[in-house]
Amino acid sequence: MECSIKPEAGYDLLQLSGEVDMHFSPELRETILERIKAGNPLLIDMGNVSYIDSSGIASLVEGYQTAKTANLAFGLLNISGAAMQVLTLTRLDKIFSLYTSAEQFRQEL
Amino acid sequence: MSKTRKLLALQFPARSENMGNVRQKLREVMASCSKSETMTNCIVLAVGEACMNIIQHAYGKEEQGDIILEVEKQGDNMTFRLTDFAHHKTRAEQLQSRPLDEIRPGGLGCHIINEIMDEVQLVECKNGCGNVLQMKKCLHRQTESN
Fold it and tell me: What is the pLDDT of residue B71?
């Protein structure tokens, strides 16, 4: 798994790629919570996520809830097929805000 | 009735850093059986979740040990068997899904396994090992996300 933060105008873009499993999800969780606690809306680009399990999904859910409590926007961008399968299985595709372009997210800020 | 073929028998230390290699080996096996990449992804996900449960809950922080993953195929029916050697005895009710209307982190692993696999059960442990989890999947039966 690789995750890097790119500051954009008005929000942070987290670029996530590779396999997000229980070995790497603590790092993802920490990165997400750190950005939200810094007061930044967060958009996570998941276009290059080849695998994500329930521990990775749990990091996203925690980020979503923390952002909601802080009244900050939290979105998922370009969901890969593998990630969408897991979101659908867990019915979380109906909970998260999903975007196909960063512009869409920016306009909602 | 077609013959049962053993496609994989893999023993590995129950540690999170090994799971990438385990998934890769399972993916290679499934590539020769499954006609759909979606099906392969689902099975790799379910087996990965079951391994994660063993690492986190059966062995936990206090104990270390191995997992044996066996994969068998009979016609279109696949069997995935995970054996651990933990002292903790997993109970059948621990394999149940939790309600999905509770939006909270965690507890989704069993739901994923139950959604993907046709049958999930703890079977008798013959050699004094900890737990044996057996999961069955017919390659023609779709999961909801297919």
Answer: 98
